Amino acid sequence: MTTDLIRFGLDGRPQRRRLLGAATASIALVLWPVRDALAQFRVEVSGVGLTQFPFSVVGFRGNDAASEDIAAIVRADLERSGQFRFVPATTGGLDETSRPDLAPWRDKGADSLVTGSVSRLADGRFDVRFRLWDVVRGQDLGGLSYPVSAQTLRLAAHRIADYVFEKLSGDKGVFSTRIAYVTKAGTRYTLWVADADGEGARSALSSPEPIISPSWAPGGSQLAYVSFEARKPVIYAHDVASGKRRLLANFKGSNSAPAWAPDGRQLVATLSLSGNAQIYLVGADGADPKRLTQTSSIDTEPVFSADGKSIYFVSDRGGSPQIYRMDAGGGNPKRLSFSGNYNISPSPSPDGRWLAFISRVNGAFRLHLMELATGTVSAISDTSADERPSFAPNSRMVIYATRDKGQEALMTTSLDGRIKSRLAGAQGDIREPAWGPFQP
Amino acid sequence: MLFTSQAAAHLSVVLRSRELKLRALLGVAVLALAACTNIPLEDVQVQDRTGTSVSELRAGNAAGGATSGAAGEGVTGVEVAGANRAQPDALNRVVYFDFDSFEIRPEFASVLEANAKYLGVDSRRRLALEGHTDERGGREYNLALGQKRAEAVRRAMGLLGVKDIQMEAVSFGEEKPAVAGFDETAFAKSRRVELTYR
C-alpha cells in the first residue's frame, strides 16, 4: 500500500484559480479568509483505497464571477476521500452543455470528467451547473443545476462532489455534511460547527469552562452538549442557526452524555440523581426523566441504535467498563464486548452493521470496529490516545479524536483503516467530534 | 488552596473544643425544625427548565450574515461567563484519592470535619463536592468516576451531620487536571475532590 501525503494549506488570501494547463504537483487551496483564527485547519490525507477512480474536473466556465472556485472544491472533496485520483485537465473552455471530445481524456487515463458553469441570475444569486461524463463509455452520467446565494456556493460544490461520489462508488457522499467539535485554547473552550472539510467553522458556544459530548439531533439543526459553565455538568439543547438554547437537564449532581433518539423527541443521558451514574430517558422539552438502568454501578455513554429499538451503553457492573446493548425501554441488557477490561464510547453505524468503540489494549486507548452480525472486532487505528468515535451518516467513515505528535487532533478513517485524514487546528487543542447527519 | 497539616490539626483542636457544644446546638435545632415542619431532610431535585440563564452575544457574524457552508444555514455564536466565587480562607478543602479508589483515606478525616463545622455554623452555606480524575481514559466514564468520589465525600459529610440540602456532589471528570503532565505525580494530584463553597 503506498502512502500519498496531500497537504491542503490555508493562506487566507482570496483568489480565483482555474484548473487549466499543466499539472501542478502541490495543491494549494486558497479560500476566503475565515474570520475565526482557530478555524484554520490543516488537513492531511494518508493512504489510498483498494480501488481509486481516476477523474478530472475542468474549471467551471464563468467561475470568475463568483468568490469560490467550484472545480477546486469538487476536486479537493473527491481527493480527500482517498478513493479518487485526480488527472490534470488537458483542455479548458468546456461547460455542461458542450459534448467534449473524450478521446484525449481517455488517453490521459481519466475514467470520468466533470464540466460545468457558473452564471449570475437576475436576482443576484448564482446558477451552478455541472455534467458528469463517463469517459470510458462515452456516456453522459447526468447533471444538475443549483441556484445558490454567494454564501452557499461552497455547498453547491459539495453537492456536486456528493453526486459524483455516489454515481461512481455507489455510496452516498458526505461532503455536504457538518461536523461539531470542541477546542481549548488556554482557558477558553469553544464549540464549533464546520463543514466536513473543516472549512467555514463558526463558533456556536464560547465559555471559560469545559464543553464536552456534543450530539447532533436528527435533521442537523440542533446540538445537545454538556457545559460546565455553572461549575457542574449540565445538558443544553442548542439551535445552531439562532444560537437559542434551552436547558435539557440540570438535576442535582452531574448531567452528561446526551444522545438523541432517531425521532428527535427524546434523548438518553447519564444523570447522577440516584447517587451513581445511571441512564435516563429525557424528553426533548425537558420532561421528567425516566430511569432505564437499575444498578449500583456506573452506567453511562448511552446511544440509540439507528432504528431506535436499542440503546448501546457502557457499564462496569461486571467489574470493569464494558459495552452493552439493551432495549430502548431499558430491558434485556446484553454484553457485547469481551476482549480486554476497558471498552467504552460505543458509536453504532447508521446502517446498523457496525459498532465503533474505544478499547484499551496494553495501556493504549485505540479505535476498534465490531461487525455486529458476527461480533468480529478489529483495531482500525494505530494511535494510543483515541477518544469519542462518531460515524459519518453514510456509514463509511468514522471521525474520532486522538493525540498525535504531542498534539490533540481529529482524525477520520475509512472502515478498513486504510484511508485517514487528520484535521489539526492552528492553535489550541481539539477534541470531542460529532459528525452531523445528512441534511435535506 | 492548601493548608499545612499542622495548622489544620490546630484548627481541628480549636474547633473540637467547641464541637460538643455545637453538636448539641445543631441537634436541638434539627429536632426543632423537624418538629415544626415534619419535612424529611432528603435530596432536593434542582431543576431549571426555563432555559434562558445566560447572556448571549452574537459573535463575529458581521458583514451581511454568516457564511453558511454546508447546511445553507448560519451559525450564531453564544458567549457565556464563568461562575466563580470567593472561598473561605484558612480552610483545607481538598481530599486526594488513590488510583482506582473511592475510599477516603484517614488522613483526610480532619478536612471533612473542619468543613462540616463550617457548614454547621450557617445553614445557608452551600457546598459543592467537585470530584476529579486523572486524564487517563474516556471523558464520560471519568465523569462518572469523579462523581463516585464526590459521592463518597458527600456520604461521609452526611455522617458528620451535614444536612443534605447544603451539599451537592458533582463531577468534573478529567476536565480540570490539577497540574499539567502525564506522569504519576501529576495524575496523583488530579485524583481529588474539591470542596467548593457556592
Structural description of this entry:
The complex is a heterodimer of chains A (440) and B (198). Helices cover 8% and strands 43% of the residues of chain A. The two termini of chain A are 37 Å apart. Chain A is mostly beta strands and 440 residues long. Chain A has helices spanning 70-80, 103-108, 153-169, and strands spanning 6-8, 41-46, 53-57, 84-86, 112-120, 126-134, 139-148, 178-185, 188-195, 202-207, 211-216, 222-227, 234-239, 245-249, 255-260, 266-271, 278-283, 290-291, 299-304, 310-315, 322-327, 334-335, 343-348, 354-361, 364-371, 376-379, 387-391, 397-404, 407-414, 420-425, 429-435. In chain A, strand 11 (211-216) and strand 12 form a beta hairpin. Chain A is built from three helices and 31 strands. Residues 1-40 of chain A have low confidence and may be disordered. Chain A folds into two domains: 6-169, Rossmann fold, CATH 3.40.50.10070; 178-435, Neuraminidase (6 Propeller), CATH 2.120.10. In chain A, strands 1-2-30-29-28-27 form a six-stranded antiparallel sheet, with no helix packed on it. Chain A has a five-stranded mixed sheet with strand order 4-3-5-6-7, covered by helices on one side. Chain A is globular, with a radius of gyration of 23 Å. Chain B is an alpha+beta fold. Chain B has a domain at 92-198: OmpA-like domain (60s Ribosomal Protein L30, Chain: A, 2-Layer Sandwich). Helix content of chain B is 37%, strand content 12%. Chain B contains four helices and five strands, in the order αββαβαβαβ. Chain B has a four-stranded mixed sheet with strand order 2-5-3-4. In chain B, strand 3, helix 3 (139-159) and strand 4 (167-173) form a beta-alpha-beta unit. In chain B, helix 1 (5-37) packs across helix 2 (109-121). Mean pLDDT of chain B is 73; it is low at 1-5, 7-17 and 22-72. At the A-B interface, helix 3, strand 9, strand 10 and strand 14 of A face strand 1, helix 3 and strand 4 of B.
